[in-house]
Amino acid sequence: MARGLQTLLSYTWAHSIDDVSSDVYFVNVPPGVEPPGQDRGSSDYDIRQTFAGAISYDMPGPGSGIVHAILSHWSTDSIIYARSAVPVNVVTGDDPFNTVFLSGAMGIARPNVVPGLPFYIDESAAPGGKVINAAAFSIPATGQGDLGRNALRGFGATQIDLTLRRQFRLTDHVSLQARGDFFNILNHPNFGSPQNYLTAGGQPNPLFGQATQTLAGYLGSGGQSGGLNPLCQVGGPRSIQLALKLQF
């Protein structure tokens, strides 16, 4: 833009709709037991609003002499990321369709809605400040309940990363860059989706409706365990990386 300042800002509104979206099982709707369209709803990865901004600034060196030598050649970079919440598909945890593997968190049997009760309860001590209200749902005697697929939402995410760097010119063709990278510099807590199944092994799930992981951990453990390495993902606690880079 001017005087060493660069910015890049983007905002996206989107809505993804389907009747099944699973990267674990190729079928997570029992064939032939539900009317067409009953599972139509927001995709598992439906994120309505996303904002991303990047700012880079080469700071001018003030003064002259030793002051200028100390305070010149500094730069800062910042990335700001914010998005709305992803869907949560509340399920009973039971397997009334006798699929063997579609139960618990991977279940597809949804509960009935109890009229007049809120879906969410504000709890200041809970991760994210709210929980999904288990009393707002009842388990149907057979088959599928009347709660829509992916009808609820989990938590949004917000993070600010900051880099401070300085360039040291060693020769005409060689320079050394010293930098410090601060990820989630404000240490803002971001949480993965709350547990979505009401029962486990026929017993009430005591953690239903609560987030049990940070967003970075919720995205996976990386390596052979699958998913994304939490160390390199958005949604973790504040972390700092120091580096030296020789450029030639």
Short description:
The chain is mostly beta strands and 248 residues long.
SSE order and pairing:
Blueprint: E1 5-13, E2 17-18, E3 41-42, E4 49-59, H1 65-71, E5 74-83, E6 87-88, E7 112-113, E8 120-122, E9 130-132, E10 137-138, E11 152-153, E12 157-169, E13 175-183, E14 199-200, E15 203-204, H2 215-218, E16 239-247
Antiparallel strand pairs: 1-4, 2-3, 4-5, 5-12, 6-11, 7-10, 8-9, 12-13, 13-16, 14-15
Spell out the key features of this protein.
about 250 residues, mainly beta, 6-stranded antiparallel sheet, two-stranded antiparallel sheet, 2 helices, about 5% helix, about 35% strand, elongated
The number of E-state strands comes to 16
- Widest sheet: strand order? 1-4-5-12-13-16
**Low-pLDDT ranges:** none
Radius of gyration: 24 Å
Polypeptide structure, described:
The protein has 248 residues and is mainly β. Strands 1-4-5-12-13-16 form a 6-stranded antiparallel beta sheet, with no helix packed on it. Strands 2-3 form a two-stranded antiparallel sheet. A two-stranded antiparallel sheet has the order 6-11. The protein is 4% helix and 33% strand. A hairpin with a 5-residue loop joins strand 12 and strand 13. The longest helix has 7 residues, at 65-71. The chain has a domain at 5-155 and 191-212. It has 2 helices and 16 strands. The protein is elongated. The chain has helices spanning 65-71, 215-218, and strands at residues 5-13, 17-18, 41-42, 49-59, 74-83, 87-88, 112-113, 120-122, 130-132, 137-138, 152-153, 157-169, 175-183, 199-200, 203-204, 239-247.
